Amino acid sequence: MNDAAAMGVRPGSGFDSAAAARLIALFLPLALLGGALGSQYLGGLHPCEMCYWQRWPHGVAIVLAALAFTAPSRSARSRTLTLLATLAIAVSGAIGVYHAGVEAKIFEGFTQCTALAKSANAADMLRQITHAPVVRCDDVQFRFLGISMAGWNAVLSLGGAAAIVLLLTVGAKRR
Prior knowledge:
Blueprint: H1 3-6, H2 17-41, H3 49-68, H4 76-103, H5 122-131, E1 143-144, E2 147-148, H6 149-173
Antiparallel strand pairs: 1-2
Helix pairs in contact: 2-3, 2-4, 2-6, 3-4, 4-6
C-alpha cells in the first residue's frame, strides 16, 4: 500500500502534501499567537516572561511560512522555508514544555524579577513598576481540560511540527 492510499487520498485527486504542510506552518502559529493575544487583551490574562518567550518563535514561523508562499509548494525554496517555520514552531513548543514543567514544579523557574519597565524618566518607570501586575511563571492563570496554556502550546506546537514534517516526508517520497 502506498503512502497516498494509506492517507485515504486517491492518486490524481490533487492532494499536495507540501501545500498542506505549508498551510499548517502558517495557520498553526497564527492561531496560537492569536489565542495568546486574545487571552491577554480580551480575556484579561497577564502573560509572564516565559509566555512572551513562546510568542517570539511563532512570530518568526508566521514570517517564514508566509515567505514559503512566494514559491511553488514543491519547490526547494518553499520546502526549506516551511521546514524553518516548523523548527520555529517546535522551539515554541519546547519552551512550552519547560514552562509547563515550571508550572508543575518539575523545573525551577525564575528566582528574580523579570518585569521590564520602559520609560525615559524615573517617575514614569516607578509608576509602571508599581502598577504592573505581578505574574509568576509558576502560577497557572487558566486551564482548559486540566492543561495550562503553556501545556496546550507545547502539545499543539510539537504535534503540529510533527504533522508538518510527516506531510513533507510523504510528499518527498511521492515525487
